[in-house]
Amino acid sequence: MDALAIEDVRKSFGGVQALQGITFSVAPQEIVGVIGPNGSGKSTLFNVLTGALKPDSGRVLLNGKDITRWPAYRIARSGLGRTFQIPALFENMTVLENLLTASVEHNWDGVHERASAVIELLELQRVAAEPARSLSGGQQRLLELGRVLMREPDLVLLDEVAAGVHPNLRKLMLDVIRAKREAGTTFLVIEHDMELTGEICDRIIVMDAGEVVAKGTFEEISSDAHVMEAYLGVSVE
Ligand SMILES: Nc1ncnc2c1ncn2[C@@H]1O[C@H](COP(=O)(O)OP(=O)(O)OP(=O)(O)O)[C@@H](O)[C@H]1O
């Protein structure tokens, strides 16, 4: 059974057709990248998957369950987590408190042990008692990922999670994503950084103007001159 199946999902904003019939699926423990130019519909797709937006038509299945019209909190409780382009942290709370509060409405059993494990995994021990606002941009992104991991989701949506992150932290972040995948988590990743996409994604979905215009491995996508030039503005030799 697919971890995620998206079936002919459509969403318009007035005259703008942000999603024009998106169909693809993600297998358990896959890492799938979603790339495409600004305005191609990536964020709208994520918002439909999390329940922040209702699609006009089409279906979304999470582990085989139709979650299409469920409220966002119910979808989150069913095992879908996401990070945001701009980390959504409690800036005046400590790193530890940010992790603990992520478990509100989830599961308080063993919450301190889980927080300790996440702090260790993300190498945030030295700043655990510091307010989130004092962290570097990269550490804030790690903490945002940590808040998602506290809820032990089956499927994680990552929105440009490594943008502007220092290379050392970026490597740590990719290692954590790979380790979580090995442990059973599935990832859908919006990414502008093609290098990162190539490093961690098993498959890539290319979107343009609300449609899926190509699918394949990084090698297949990056050898498709039409995709690279027309949709990513990258000139292929
Ligand atoms: N709430 C909204 N109201 C009206 N139009 C919207 C709304 N949200 C998105 N759109 C439009 O839908 C289209 C898709 O936008 P979306 O933000 O999903 O693209 P994107 O691929 O995530 O872009 P970016 O890479 O810049 O984040 C765009 O034309 C955008 O202007």
UniProtKB/TrEMBL annotation:
The keyword Transport applies. Residues 4-234 form the ABC transporter domain. One of its GO terms (cellular component) is plasma membrane. The keyword Transport applies. This is Branched-chain amino acid ABC transporter ATP-binding protein. Gene3D superfamilies: P-loop containing nucleotide triphosphate hydrolases. It comes from Intrasporangium chromatireducens Q5-1. It holds the Pfam family BCA_ABC_TP_C. One of its GO terms (molecular function) is ATP hydrolysis activity. Keywords: ATP-binding, Nucleotide-binding, Transport. Coiled coil: none annotated. CDD domains: ABC_Mj1267_LivG_branched (cd03219).
